[in-house]
Amino acid sequence: MKQFFSVGTGLTLLFFLSSFCPAEETSPSSDKKKNEKYSAKELVMKTMGGRQFWGDVQFFQGWKIQQHVISQHYRLLDPKDQRHASGSLADCQQRLEEIKAAEQLPPMRGKAVILVHGIIRSSKSFVKMKETCQQKGWLVVPFDYPSTQRTIPENANYLGKVIQSLEGIEEINVVVHSMGGLIVRSWLAQQDVVDPRVKRMVMLGVPNQGADMADRFRSNLLFKAIFGPAGQQLVTEVNSDFISNLPTPPFSFGVIAGGRNTLKGYNPLIRGDNDGTVAVSSTRLPGAADFIMLPVLHSFMMNDPETISYTLRFLETGVFRDSGKPQPIPVPQTVTVP
């Protein structure tokens, strides 16, 4: 019981949670219109939320099919998060095909950008990044997964299904925040051959070496209840080798870290410079084509204008700076003992 009621631990955990859970922005809702295209049998309904219990398994032009982690049933959502079907996967796929024909939805093609959120968050946390990518003419895939209900490898399975569903897309780029980067690396571990369409990835505040704060709170009952099984996998190598065994992406990737460029970062509980949640040193993954540190807090990186600018430049050119000069993170040379 001391774990729950220690004032110091409680306040520290509250600070930690607040860094993950600011209010998520949503796009302005449009006026409600009567939908006369569908019969009462296919009544269109606004979802009731519960994003932590649904994982995406298929995507098409903003439409997505999701699976519930407990009941295992599926639902079909339109780009405005309105439900158009519910039941088996086959039911939802059939309904999607009917809608494709009725609305004459064009096939997907060109370049897609998958946005992968972090733990406790949802794709809504990428609203400004999404809008900016769409202005480039890219198809944006706002990937949702039950981050607190399943392990990182289990959530990576959802990502794999979504990537498989992107038929017609010629190039795939990925932008990941926090644990989202570990989801992608876990997906890579599950592949015999990585989809050759995946070209570039930008990592925003990803704990590639684990998170000190997860080490601190991993035994706390409240932390376990809120962050779930994936939260236990965010610890550093001192407590687990899960993250250290994840593969390095075989495609070009860049790392953006948040920090103050001082010996102490935004959070005094984290060793060295940090963004309030993840240490700068933890974001550095050897093999990165480029690295840059910006004065931005962890939870606001995805919608920070400067971060978005650097992210888009890397997706287009493979470097962060307009000078074209990268600052790669070298892979340590192994010493062979004769």
Number of helices: 10
How widely separated are the two ends?
55 Å
Relative strand content: 15-25%
- Number of β-strand runs: 11
Rg over CA atoms, rounded to whole Å, is: 20 Å
Low-confidence stretches: 1-5, 25-41
Q: Structural class of the secondary elements?
A: alpha/beta
User: SSE string, helix = H, strand = E?
Assistant: HHEEEEEHEHEHEHEHHEHEH
Biggest β-sheet strands, sense, barrel: 6 strands, parallel
Mean pLDDT: 89
Q: What spatial order of strands do you see in the largest sheet?
A: 7-6-8-9-10-11
Per the CATH scheme, the topology name of the largest domain is Rossmann fold
The best one-word shape is: globular
Based on the coordinates given, report the CATH architecture of the largest domain.
3-Layer(aba) Sandwich
Q: How helix-rich are the residues, as a percent range?
A: 25-40%
Looking at CATH, the homologous superfamily of the largest domain is Alpha/Beta hydrolase fold, catalytic domain
Number of domains: 2
CATH class of the largest domain: Alpha Beta
